[in-house]
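Hi Prof. W.,

I finally got the Molybdopterin-guanine dinucleotide biosynthesis protein B prediction working! I wasn't sure whether to trim anything, so I left the full sequence exactly as given:
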Amino acid sequence: MGSRGMVSGRGFRRSGRVRRTPTSAPLPVSGARTDSRSNYADGSVRSEQSSFRPAVCQVVGYKNSGKTTLICELIQLLQSKGCSVAVIKHDVHGFETDRPGTDTWRQREAGARAVAITGTEQSFIFESRSRELAELIKAFMHYDYVLVEGFKEEPYPKIVLIRNAADLELTARLPGVAAAAIWEDPSGSIARCLPEGQRRFGINDISEIAEYLWRERSFFQNFNI
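And this is what came out:
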């Protein structure tokens, strides 16, 4: 996370209450783990539940709070434990991923509302509509973790990134806040203003955040979808 040196935060309590409801298992998604008999890198057994209910964690915060950087670091650490990771990103400003002149671009320009392209190692779907977060998560049900960047108002468990005191309102206002990652000393003045019971980490405590997601993966699996 660059040169932003933060003091490690430890010993805080797990918090958050998530409604538990059973879900049905969709068809497997290419690239995800589907073998419930296989083990994680630490030797623990991947249960039937973990095969069909990913641990979902939102990473939220205001612009330039470090969301993408944190997620990229977490992907590598979770994969090192033998986990498959999918990412969903929310972009309120609009985006364009298909280059002008390609076959899929020409097909969409001709009026196709959706175009899919697949090869031996990758697939892409271009669709002219927005999707709800719950629908996107269902497409990744066979991954071990789904990390979500943004979608602040959604009810899934969240890690909120706090750069300054003005950002503290997110921890009180947003639903499902389980932890905060703070740009200052996590035992400093900003941390003391956090709601009681919320876990807190320094913004550079990547290994501790990954361990938290790993240790509490059953909590992050029990989302309402």
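The chain has a mean pLDDT of 79. Does that look reasonable to you?

Thanks,
D.
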